[in-house]
Amino acid sequence: MPKVAFTILEFFGLLGTGYLWFRFVGHVFAVPFASEPSPGPGDAALIILISYTAGSVVSNIAEYVLEQLLVPALLGRPEEILLSRSCSPRLVRYIFPGYMTPLPSEVAQRACEAMEARAVPTDPQARFHHARQIAKEHEQTWMKVEAFLGLFVFSRNISFSLFLMGLVSAVTSLIGGDTLTLPAACFAGSIGMFYRFLKFYRQYSFELFSSYPDIARSGDAA
Asked: For the residues 36-53, what does the mean pLDDT come to?
């Protein structure tokens, strides 16, 4: 399996998220170690370890809250939307125009026909997992899919983190009588990164379904 996507996922999705939290705690709660501008080599190694660990914890929570709870309940999973011919409410399509767009009819038809030929169940999640498993056998496609995975994990983690940071900083600002500039910036960043998360979350499944017919055909030929 290609190693490039592993670097994107691990470094940006986990280490970057944890480091953001590390600096946030140092800034908001005035923790000396977390606010040190130029740490030494030993401290830097410890910061990397703390950031990676914190990022891993936040990533697991963000995955559960956003991918397992909120997005499926409020919008639907990407594979369900991409393979659906039904029309979502106009307001939802207006707010999330990119995410709520299904596959082009020709692309969806080719993918569905290829899966029917392999007797894949019609359940969208079953088709998603089948397409994902087949994509793993095609290195070039899998590299693109893993790149989108790294991007949506990073965007998801940062969006979730900024939202929580906005809540924390809002409380501390109100208690301390400070301005709400930092909370406002956190919430604005969270919204922006949430849209980025949805974009790459959808693109991850889009790439699997759009490339599936050609991969399946090449596998059958082999």
From this structure: 82
